[in-house]
Structures are given as C-alpha cells and as structure tokens.
Amino acid sequence: VQLQASGGGSAQAGDSLGLSCTASGRTFGYTVAWFRQAPGKEREFVAAMFRNTGRAYYADSLRGRFTISRDNAKNTVYLQMNNLTPEDTAVYYCAADGGIILSSIRIPRAYDYWGQGTQVTVSS
C-alpha cells in the first residue's frame, strides 16, 4: 500500500483547506487516519475512520472543525479543515493499517503505511 497526500498549502486564520490521501493498493477494510507534526513537536493524532465500523474519531481539540471522510471507490480519504488557526500549522500525514484495534487508533506507531506528508501553514 502506498499513500499519496495532497492539498496542503498556505491559508489565513479562519480559512478552510481540504486534504486528500489516495492509496494505491487495496485499503478496503483498513483504518485510515490523519496525523500532524508541528516543528519541534511529536506527531499527533488528528482523525481516523475505523475499519470495522467506518465510524470517525477525532482529537478532542479538533472535533467540530475537522471532518474526515473516505471514498472507497476512489481509494481516497479526505480531511476537511475549517476555521483554521496558526496552531494548525504542521505537516499533515495520512496513514493506514489493516490491523488497527480501536484502543490504538490514536497511536502513530500502530500504523504500518504512511504518506509523505503535506505542509499546511496558517498565518494570523
């Protein structure tokens, strides 16, 4: 499985951006997730869609502003980010794994497959 993230860029505070992550190879039945990493910080969980139920999970601080979705026919997962703030500035990574258990959904090391990352920069 190879993941290709796209859609990052520069935005002003309050703007919206959408990210896409397209997979080559079978990801049906995989948990797909977005993480982000700001300079000098650890990679943190953003959102995920769990493989068994399709239910979405979010970082508590981002719920309500970010929305994850997927189009299985296109092998693509999306992240819609609204009302961006400078604190959202980071490299955003998509990830996927076929064996995630729910208790590990927020843990980066639980995922085997990663995209290359796309930069999101939000200015005030």
Helix % is under 10%
How big a fraction of the residues is strand? over 45%
Alpha-carbon Rg, integer: 13 Å
Mean pLDDT rating: 94
Based on CA inertia axes, which overall geometry fits?
globular
Main sheet makeup: 7 strands, mixed
Give a count of the beta strands, DSSP E runs of length 2 or more: 11
Give the class from helix and strand content and strand pairing: mainly beta
Helix segment count? 0
Write the element-wise H/E pattern from the N-terminal end onward. EEEEEEEEEEE
C-alpha termini separation? 37 Å
- Unreliable residue runs: none
Features of the shown structure:
single chain, about 120 residues, mainly beta, four-stranded antiparallel sheet, 11 strands, about 0% helix
Explain how this protein is built.
By secondary structure, the protein is mostly beta strands. Helices cover 0% and strands 49% of the residues. The chain has strands at 2-6, 9-12, 17-24, 31-37, 44-49, 56-58, 66-71, 76-81, 90-97, 113-114, 118-123. Strands 2, 4, 5, 6, 9, 10 and 11 form a seven-stranded mixed β-sheet that branches. Strands 1-3-8-7 form a four-stranded antiparallel β-sheet, with no helix packed on it. Strand 5 and strand 6 (56-58) form a beta hairpin. The chain is globular, with a radius of gyration of 13 Å. It starts with a strand and ends with a strand. The relative contact order is 0.32. The mean pLDDT is 94.
